[in-house]
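Interim report to the steering committee. The following record documents the input for RND transporter (775 residues).
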Amino acid sequence: MFTDVLFGLPVRKPWLTLFIVALFAGLFSFGAQNLYFRGDYKVFFHDDSPELIKFTEQQDRFKAAQGIAIIIEDPSGNVFNETTLNIVRELTELGWEFPYAIRSSSLANFQYTTADGDDMVVEPLIGDDNSLTPKNIEYIKNIALTDANTAGVLVSRSGQLALVSVTVQLPEDGGLTEQVIEIVRHTNKIIADAKEKAPELIFRKSGSIALNDAFGVAAAQDVRTLIPMMFAAVMVFLGLLLRSWRFVFATMLVLGTAVSMTMGLLGWTGHYLTNITIGVPMLLLTLAVADCVHIITGYIHGLNKGKGQTEAIKYSLELNFIALLVTSVTTSFGFLMMNASVSPALIDFGNLAAVGVMIAFILSVTLLPAILALMPIKTSTSRVDEQDESMLKIAEWVISHHRKVLPIAAIVVIASGFLMSQNELNDELVKYFKTGSDYREQASFLDDKVGNTTLTITLDTGEAQGITKVEFLKTLDAFTNWLYEQPEVNHVSSLVDVMRRLNKNLNGDDPNYYKIPSTDEMGAQYLLMYELSLPYGQDLNSHVDFNKSAVRVTAIMRSLGSKGMIELESKVEDWLDKNASGYGYEITDLSVMFAHIGASNLKSMIVTLPLALGVISALLILALRSWRLGILSLIPNCAPIIVGFGAWYLVSGEINIAVSVVVSMTLGIVVDDTVHFLTKYRKAREEGKSVEDGVRYAFVTVGRALWVTTVVLCTGFALLATSDFVPNASMGFLSAVVVMFALLGDFFMLPAILLLIDRKAYLNKKASLVESSCR
């Protein structure tokens, strides 16, 4: 027999099977020692991503490396006092001692220029030898709150916050995450020491280093809490639903082995973990449960039909193998469709999950039967009979009310489709972290006070020393003023502010000369004189490129989200095209990168959706050997996704980078229930049963397994929804909703469709046979 050949080894020689599985599991799992974690924003972009290349080139050109900022808040609302300014000065000096530091900037070492006769004096605003008398403090305050290069940048316009910014240059050959942790630990120590000296002050962290650290902190929190919670939840639900610690043990052994082998394979490839792929173990713990539950419930069903242990295992494998194979392949294919994503983190997630699902399938038809063959099982038929009776009641209700079910289902799907269309794409980087998390709270606070998002524009003259020419400075001046007029923008950092001040200084500090120089020669001389006067580490490299051919303009604003950022970017492009056509420009920044990746990712997922539907439908037609059932399966497979995204509009209404892949991810998962139901239904129909009896048979043989696996899947995804990393949490919540509606669709919509459409085909075929016999 087929089962004797295919499943003979696990049943007849379970110890040999266990040895072979243990050998491969050990070999695969050993690779996990090579795994490491990368918690930086670059993991979301391909190395050849245009957005990343543009951003990296801009950083290299202007020596605008990564950094961390210490925000100092004085609860009195005024940082201009002796204690706070001394702390600012001390932290600025200590900034040079940070790991990998190349620049430390604040009010303390801001190089302020003044006129001394015909000479220009350049000196730090708060020098080491400055005595912070009330008169000097008032002088510092007046300059800090009026100068365009400090107000809104190094100090909030309200005077409540001061900022110390440390720029770092990380070695390219180092482990980025380890370097980030080292810098953050050093920062925390510096802040702790400062807190002891001035306990009334409040200290916060910001900047790209703080962002990268937040990625790592969120991932570590998920590993510490969610994976153990997932194991515990799966064990509890399996115990309650299967009522046997032996079955729970067998299932958990399969799950643990599947996770270990999958993550070990990732390690063997020399790859790394990210905030997204860290969720794969949690995903596999839920997906692999379905295979085990179907095998176990089929095994129990066989025992209760009077079969011996060996025959019951073979019966279950024969009953479920094709369905498990098809569901595993379709689920894996759904994850593989994530290769259409523009983000490597999501591609890695999809590929790793696809491999894990197939490993779980192989273990469920090898390792699990071997364990069952070695395990003495005491079954209670009363509970099984009781649950079969419950499934029969549902089947009878659907059979009696199927003509009412379909109109109601249609209304729900149509209404959900309308709500689904109202969702808007909006990726907001700060919202990648849960409300209440340290980074989210710090970033939100800074966002409210001065703005936490930047938009950087590079203007290129195309010639050396071109930025000092009057014609260009006029364009830069007009562009800077236009940016200030935009309601989204709080502050603009531009070379034109430096040139205005230098022109005023070298004209006796006459306020009437606070404008750009009148000749090209004056502009070049002013800039050269200023640069020669600057101390080490305080040059203009972050604003001006090496040969003075291009400048970097930075607009600071509140977080806009991807929609608002793309709109602002478009307005900037329109202005530059109309008013600076003679110059080249590039617009980039982290916020711009993430704004575009979300839109590109959603577009790529939508483009590949028809292919996914076509391939999965073809697989179902082949597996079910019925084009009618294959086509009909599209309805209960697509409906849960539509309803889920409709519900998502009521919950959030915003689609981020992770939510955009839920369609591909869940499409393969929701097919599972449909396949199991239809294979049992088809088996009954092949045995000559009517449509109604086919529905009853499907409910009795697979109904229990479907709701058990759905409960576990929903629990797993619901736990993922508690992740500190919001993309994972959003993906978990929406997936749980889709999976829940998938069960409802397969319990009510699918049988109703079969009763309406397949019964007509059945009656037509029967009438044709009768007519033929009469002839």
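The chain has 24 helices and twelve strands. The committee is asked to note this result when reviewing the revised timeline.
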